[in-house]
Specification:
Elements lengths: L2 E6 L6 H12 L3 E6 L9 H8 L17 H8 L2 E7 L1 H9 L5 H8 L4 E5 L3 H5 L1 H11 L4 E3 L21 H12 L1
Parallel strand pairs: 1-2, 1-3, 3-4, 4-5
Helix pairs in contact: 1-2, 1-8, 3-5, 4-7
């Protein structure tokens, strides 16, 4: 089966990444989770490790098991890189080639298709800077942005655009990309 790198960013929707990992593993895929430091405020490495059945990469200090840095090894083995959820900050780093953490460093080394599933406040999503970053990412070969949902109640209490698409849709999009 395929190797899926699941990038998890700082958003309340990060808890849904655990369900995505679990479903992909049950389908027989190898899942590796790479978290931004802020993601760890919303979901624990233990949860993701248990469901993915692989160690979770959270910092460069996690990269002590081999002479090849883990973020490089995973990038070379990836069949798809899915960012679930994608924060405005991580999208900005990706768009501008910044690599302040293990996930964005892996992104720069990655040559597999990239699926970006944004989740953020609607004002953040609709800000010209975020929209420009999304356009930059969409202009790159093999990159797709799925979502955010157009309507719904957001964690911040606002109603509108910004919610992460459903777990079912995320898994379907990853499987579609792997076909």
């Amino acid at each position: 089966m395929a190797t899926v790198i699941l990038g998890v960013c700082g958003s309340i929707a990060a808890y849904k990444a655990a369900d995505v990992a679990s479903r992909l593993v049950k389908l027989g895929h190898e899942v590796h989770c790479v978290c931004t430091p802020t993601a760890l405020k919303f979901v624990t490495p233990l949860t993701l490790m248990t469901l993915s059945r692989n160690p979770v990469i959270t910092t460069f200090e996690d990269e002590t098991g081999s002479w090849v840095p883990v973020h490089i090894d995973l990038a070379q083995r990836a069949d798809v890189l899915a960012i679930v959820p994608a924060s405005a900050n991580t999208m900005a780093c990706m768009a501008h080639g910044l690599a302040p953490n293990a996930l964005t460093s892996l992104y720069l080394a990655n040559r597999a298709p990239v699926l970006i599933f944004p989740a953020m406040n609607g004002n953040m999503w609709n800000h010209p800077a975020t929209q420009q970053n999304a356009s930059i990412l969409l202009g790159r070969e093999g990159h797709r942005i799925i979502g955010p949902e157009d309507a719904g109640m957001l964690a911040c209490g606002a109603e509108g655009q910004g919610r992460l698409v459903t777990v079912e849709r995320i898994v379907d999009e990853i499987l579609r990309e792997l076909r």
